[in-house]
């Protein structure tokens, strides 16, 4: 199983102006740096929480079709864009929507509703393309935006991973803000 980003988000859930206000930065001298820490903070929050803040397309590849309910690894899931199975000639063949059921949200779930065609290759023969993320920046929950701002502020102030007398860690408030959005499986 592998997960591949097909199409990154077109924008971030926090604007440069919002982050600069949070950082109390009024000049434009470091806009490129602040934009960089903003993007890094968003990606770190998404990775830590198994989340997609803004709409983005992903591909999950499997060796075989799912036999039971499959929880998609990034939430919230907005849609299944395509499912294909690779045939004996190596060509992707579309899987008819009648052979699976899909539930969007957190987590997105996919369950077989009938027999799936079997892929010819043994590795990565099934491709599930899906869109994950909140509809727009206004739909992203405020606690996630706050986690991004806190982490971006931390990256801005602490530009090195360690110092000779101290190792830096992610602020605990980031994990506390992410906790309600993480998926836990039993």
UniProtKB/TrEMBL annotation:
Gene3D superfamilies: Phage gp6-like head-tail connector protein (1.10.3230.30). Transmembrane segments: none annotated. Pfam families: Phage_connect_1. This is Head-tail connector protein. It comes from Hyphococcus flavus.
